[in-house]
Amino acid sequence: MRIITSIAHLLVLAAFTAVLPAGVAHASREATGPAADPVSGIKISFKMDPRITRGMYMGDRWVSPPTHIGVQAGKEITVEARVEGLDAGGKPTCASPAWTPEDPDMVRVSRGQGRQVRITVLRAGESALSVTCGKAGRKLAVKATTKDNTIQVEISQQ
Q1: Which end of the chain is more exposed for a tag (fewer CB within 10 A), N or C?
Q2: Same domain, 41 and 11
Q3: Domain check: are 98 and 27 in the same one?
Q4: Do 108 and 142 belong to one domain?
């Protein structure tokens, strides 16, 4: 009976020891508030072409390659993107990033849901797109080419 009581005490102590640091970290984070987590980096992701993912029942997939390439029939192309402002610990912290095209006659950005946007490239050419979230920012190089009735866009993260 004494062994069972000792084991029970050890289990309670182990559980308490495992939960206590998480509670202290949570309490200290709430005490400092969200202002203590300034944006220190930005992660930009692009939505993969649904024609690739839906047939495999994968749902929407977001990728963050150095260069995103999209091809579409017609004279313009739309790419869905999203941004996450990250704090020093790598946790999302920015609620409303700003997207600013260098050439609005070539690149147009419209709001989607939450942090998502639709980047529409209206013609062939080269431009830049700035994304800022707090004091952190990133530039995207946009290069579009047309051939026959198809447009290809390359969006490179710099």
Answers
A1: N
A2: no
A3: no
A4: yes
Residue 17's domain spans which residues? 2-32
The answer on 126 and 62 residing in a single domain is yes
Give the chain's mean pLDDT.
79
Q: Which of 140, 141, 142, 98 is nearest to 122 (CA)?
A: 142
User: pLDDT tens across 134-157, in order?
Assistant: 888 899 999 999 999 999 999 999
* pLDDT tens per residue across span 46-74: 999 887 777 777 778 899 999 999 999 99
Is 99 in contact with 67 (CB distance < 8 Å)? no
Beta-bridge partners for 135: none
User: pTM for the whole thing?
Assistant: 0.71
120 in the same domain as 51: yes
* Number of structural domains found in the chain: 2
